[in-house]
């Protein structure tokens, strides 16, 4: 018999979760643009509602096109499954609320995307879910912040925009020692760069809008479960281990074992909060997944070229990228991210905020917008935009200065990107030399 | 429900519906290293469609305490004691892989006028004998991850390894892997060894007078359909079915077709 091997990463990127359409033979994944699905008979209808048979009922709960994306990302991450959502923020909300409720507490890294920071700082407390923020560089701070009400630990694999690399194995050990799941936003590290489950994470979240979708055409998010956290033994996550009145007194852990979290997230979270992904968006994102490795290879290559250029440029104070030996997480990054540290990084321009403004407005090829992970190169000034709701203290804690510029490096010709940056850097310093602007 | 049998905790998934002694009962028996959760769709369906539906955790599996039993005959003894303890009658047995051997052994012993006799048996992914390769047995005995890899690769059709689960968002391969890895370290070896050592299938088949359904996956490399030939010749009343594009892990690879076959056999 021929030697058996698991399908490889790139094969799964193209084929994972999909069988050629049985009705039409379509090779590409069709867009099942329908709200609902006709039942075979009343018995099948009842059993679909009762979780007694497989199949789709209503596209807020599940949809064939979306399901392919979910299974494909789960395969790439090495998870037991996934639930796709309307956005990355919807994914974070779904994951947190599946495990927690009023009276719950979260321990989170303080180096987070601004939107996540808003959710944890301002919005979830209105619903009784409180968060303690800690320095991700100090693992002991996570342990110290845990209380009897803590339900999960939350962090980003590489923080945005400071590029702090999370010591996933150490934080996972702390979480598991306290019988808590470690939930990670891995948006800046798609699975061809990092598979957090292999380092101990329990739940992984992606904004699919970014590198995985890759083309800046569709908003989406996803929650992936490793299936390895023992909800029952923990005893702290009662949403999964106690009978649920909202679904026929079902005990998700008892009935579904490793899939308990995902089944509750879908059957309660998507049902009641309704932040489902549209089939069309799932289709767009699937096109991106197909070329994920190819694109990321070029993203990384271009990033390394630009980081080297900026690090040597006289108009730049410093560059924050974990592959640089000067970065405080350089050694950790070498261990966790041998294929590359992503394509989003920051640098401090000499001349502060005014030089930064001139720099951004002088760029022609880089697009000034609020996104990262597009195939096209992007730029933004975090302190006044993505992290603009954070106060001065929170900005300082997150390492965001007034002159910090964030780049998301695309897959254009690197010489053209360097030329664009060179011109804008020159303009930014010219402005410094002639403050009257004359 | 949790009950005590032979001084050990036994978990029987009943979907929260109490046993009605006026109804027939279907008992689902899982395969090597697995537990009751592999039956969740079927258990939830039949519990709401005219049967008492029970998915058991064998000793040392899932939520049942104790050590895994070393012989198929001992597993059948245990199941018969469970049937008596629950005062069940008109029993329908559905077993997958190792569970199919337990079902066969149990059904072969419960013939005639016994009030708790077995009236229907469904064998999914079965073989007689159910020989287990030396390399798999050795890897399982040495608690190597390679044992799980071998089962994952030989146990799933290639298409299932890529995916396409009709249960939205669940990855077939990784969820089955996760379930196997959850078991106690020695459980998988004990179970596989029990399958390999069992020689009673053909003899028991000759004892069975009721209809037996055999379901094989066309791409099953662990219990291929041809390994049921001797069994079919010894069963008085049988019906066999081959599921296309399906491997050994048919419950998750092809749940809808398995559902159709079970509905035909049990209702």
Lay out the secondary structure.
The complex is a heterodimer of chains A (438) and B (267).
Chain A: H1 9-15, H2 42-49, H3 64-77, E1 81-85, H4 88-99, E2 105-109, H5 114-123, E3 130-134, H6 139-145, E4 150-156, H7 168-177, E5 182-185, E6 203-207, E7 221-225, H8 231-234, H9 238-241, H10 252-256, H11 260-272, H12 279-290, H13 292-311, E8 316-320, H14 330-336, E9 344-349, H15 352-362, E10 367-368, E11 378-380, H16 392-397, E12 404-408, H17 414-433
Parallel strand pairs in A: 2-3, 2-4, 4-5, 5-6, 10-11
Antiparallel strand pairs in A: 1-7, 6-7, 8-9, 9-12, 11-12
Helix pairs in contact in A: 1-3, 3-12, 4-11, 6-7, 15-17
Chain B: E1 2-5, E2 8-13, E3 25-29, H1 40-47, E4 52-56, H2 72-85, E5 91-96, H3 98-109, E6 118-124, H4 134-141, H5 145-155, H6 158-162, H7 172-182, H8 187-197, H9 201-207, E7 211-217, H10 229-234, E8 237-243, H11 250-253, H12 255-266
Parallel strand pairs in B: 3-4, 3-5, 5-6, 6-7, 7-8
Antiparallel strand pairs in B: 1-2, 2-4
Could you give the count of β-strands of chain A?
Answer: 12
Structural class of chain A: alpha/beta
N-to-C CA distance of chain B: 24 Å
Strand content of chain B: 15-25%
Spatial order of the strands forming the largest sheet of chain A: 1-7-6-5-4-2-3
Total beta-strand segments of chain B: 8
The coarse silhouette of chain A is: globular
| Helical content band of chain B | 40-55%
Strand content of chain A: 5-15%
Average pLDDT reading of chain B:
95
Largest sheet data of chain B: 8 strands, mixed
Question: Which runs of chain B of at least 5 residues are low in confidence (pLDDT < 50)?
Answer: none
The major β-sheet of chain A equals: 7 strands, mixed
**Number of discrete helical segments of chain B:** 12
The largest chain-to-chain contact, stated as pair and per-chain residue counts, equals: A-B, 56 and 42 residues
């Amino acid at each position: 018999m021929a030697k058996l091997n698991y399908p490889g990463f790139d094969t799964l990127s193209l084929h994972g979760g999909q069988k050629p359409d049985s009705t039409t033979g379509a090779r590409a994944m069709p867009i099942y643009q329908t709200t609902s699905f006709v039942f075979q008979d009343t018995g099948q209808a009842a059993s679909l509602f009762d979780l007694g048979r497989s199949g789709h009922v209503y596209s807020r709960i599940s949809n064939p096109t979306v399901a392919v994306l979910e299974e494909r990302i789960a395969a790439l991450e090495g998870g037991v499954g996934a639930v796709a959502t309307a956005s990355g923020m919807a994914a974070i909300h779904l994951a947190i609320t599946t495990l927690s409720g009023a009276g719950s507490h979260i321990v989170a890294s303080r180096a987070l995307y601004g939107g996540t920071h808003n959710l944890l700082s301002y919005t979830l407390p209105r619903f009784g879910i409180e968060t303690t923020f800690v320095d991700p560089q100090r693992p002991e701070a996570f342990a110290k912040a845990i209380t009897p009400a803590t339900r999960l630990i939350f962090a980003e694999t590489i923080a945005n925009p400071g590029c702090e690399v999370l010591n996933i194995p150490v934080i996972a050990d702390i979480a598991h020692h306290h019988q808590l799941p470690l939930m990670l936003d891995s948006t800046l590290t798609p699975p061809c760069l990092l598979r957090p489950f292999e380092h101990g994470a329990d739940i992984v979240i992606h904004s699919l809008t970014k590198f995985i979708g890759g083309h800046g055409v569709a908003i989406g998010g996803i929650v992936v479960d490793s299936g390895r956290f023992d909800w029952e033994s923990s005893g702290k996550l009662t949403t999964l281990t106690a009978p649920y009145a909202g679904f026929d007194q079902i005990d998700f852990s008892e009935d579904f074992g490793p899939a308990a979290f995902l089944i509750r997230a879908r059957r309660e979270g998507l049902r009641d909060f309704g932040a489902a992904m549209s089939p069309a968006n799932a289709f767009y994102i699937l096109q991106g997944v197909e070329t994920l490795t190819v694109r990321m290879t070029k993203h990384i290559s271009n990033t390394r070229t630009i980081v080297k250029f900026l690090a040597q440029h006289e108009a730049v104070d410093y560059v924050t990228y974990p592959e640089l030996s000067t970065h405080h997480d350089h050694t950790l990054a070498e261990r966790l991210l041998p294929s590359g540290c992503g394509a989003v990084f920051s640098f401090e321009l000499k001349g502060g905020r005014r030089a930064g403004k001139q720099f951004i407005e002088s760029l022609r090829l880089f697009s000034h917008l609020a996104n990262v992970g597009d195939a096209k190169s992007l730029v933004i000034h975090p302190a006044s935009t993505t992290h603009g709701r954070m106060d001065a203290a929170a900005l300082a804690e997150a390492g965001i200065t007034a002159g910090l510029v964030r780049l998301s490096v695309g897959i254009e010709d690197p010489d053209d990107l360097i030329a664009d940056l060179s011109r804008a850097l020159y303009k930014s310093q010219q402005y410094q030399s002639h403050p009257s602007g004359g | 429900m949790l009950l005590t049998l032979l001084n050990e905790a036994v978990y029987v998934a009943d979907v929260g519906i109490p046993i009605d002694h006026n109804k027939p009962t279907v008992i689902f028996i899982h395969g090597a290293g697995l537990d009751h959760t592999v039956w969740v769709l079927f258990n939830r369906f039949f519990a709401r469609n005219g049967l008492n539906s029970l998915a058991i955790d064998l000793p040392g599996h899932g939520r049942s305490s104790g050590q895994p039993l070393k012989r198929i005959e001992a597993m059948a003894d245990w199941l018969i004691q469970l049937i008596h303890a629950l005062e069940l009658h008109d029993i329908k047995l559905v077993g997958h892989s190792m569970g199919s051997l337990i079902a066969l052994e149990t059904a072969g012993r419960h013939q005639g006028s016994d009030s708790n006799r077995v009236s229907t048996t469904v064998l999914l992914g079965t073989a007689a004998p159910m020989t287990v390769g030396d390399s798999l047995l050795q890897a399982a005995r040495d608690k190597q991850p390679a044992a799980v890899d071998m089962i994952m690769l030989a146990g799933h059709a290639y298409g299932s390894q890529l995916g396409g689960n009709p249960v939205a968002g669940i990855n077939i391969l990784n969820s089955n892997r996760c379930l196997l890895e959850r078991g106690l370290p020695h459980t998988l070896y004990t179970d596989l060894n029990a399958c390999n050592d069992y020689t009673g299938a053909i003899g028991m088949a000759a004892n069975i007078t009721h209809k037996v359904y055999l379901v094989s996956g066309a791409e099953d490399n662990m219990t291929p359909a041809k390994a049921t030939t001797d069994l079919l010749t010894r069963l008085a009343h049988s019906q066999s079915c081959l599921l296309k594009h399906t491997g050994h892990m048919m419950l998750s690879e092809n749940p809808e077709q398995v559902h159709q076959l079970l509905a035909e056999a049990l209702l």
